[in-house]
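User: Reviewer 2 asked us to show a designed sequence for the structure in our supplementary figure. I'm pasting the structure tokens here. Could you produce the per-position amino acids so we can include them in the response letter?
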């Protein structure tokens, strides 16, 4: 497995990433409620929320670097 610092030579398109995350959400939707352990079920539900938030971020238009630095001040 690659370290987090190493970047692959090909970057993935944000909409592709959003589509993959949407698939994860659907899978989690199918699993949640079918797990006997309530604590694990709650953690899976929280994970689904995190995946949804990441998917929404991936769909947002990517702003140029100059815009990001000026708006973060």
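Assistant: Here is a per-position design you can include in the supplement:
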């Amino acid at each position: 497995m690659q370290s987090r610092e190493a970047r692959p030579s090909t970057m993935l398109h944000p909409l592709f990433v959003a589509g993959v995350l949407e698939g994860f959400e659907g899978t989690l939707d199918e699993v949640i409620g079918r797990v006997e352990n309530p604590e694990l079920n709650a953690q899976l539900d929280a994970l689904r929320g995190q995946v949804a938030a990441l998917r929404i971020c991936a769909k947002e238009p990517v702003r140029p670097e100059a815009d990001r630095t000026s708006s973060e001040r």
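For the response letter, you might also mention the following. DSSP finds three helices and no strands in the chain. The mean pLDDT is 84.
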